[in-house]
TrEMBL record:
Keyword Oxidoreductase found: yes
Keywords: Oxidoreductase
Domain Flavin reductase like: 17-160
UniProt keyword Lyase, yes or no: no
Name the UniProt record assigns to this protein: Flavin reductase family protein
SMART domains named in the record: Flavin_Reduct (SM00903)
Amino acid sequence: MADQVQGLDAAAFRSALARFPSGVTIVTTRSAGGTPHGFTASSFAALSLDPPLVLVCLDQGADCFSAFTAAEQFVVNIVTPAHAKLAMRFATKGEDKFAHGSFESDEGGHPILPDAAAVIRCELEQAVPGGDHVILIGRVHDARIGSGKPVMWYRGDFLHLGQSVK
């Protein structure tokens, strides 16, 4: 195999992971005081159908780490191409993430993207340490499908479904 990575360093590992396209989500919650929090995650997956569980990974160094590990609920918003700039803002530390964007609040006051490809609302079931991240396991209590197509993250850029891979 050409370009085989031998040994392991952080740059090589990141480069190898960048070769795996993944979906893009903006995960949101609100603190007990009502402050909204969120982050962009491409490490999101279905965990179980019965019971309905999903998982999302959050960097322990994220500004919103304590808000999510203390949260009772969180929302996974599956991003469309129209949300690319918003997803980049939510991936940037220190940004005022909710300053721009078309978020609405669900009945629990959690931020949702009404035009997301899908919105999955969860109860925090468990937070499991995983290296420099925590794995948030959510029990899904509601899922809503939007009309937009999701966007993928591949080699450091957004890839639209149906687009040819270079």
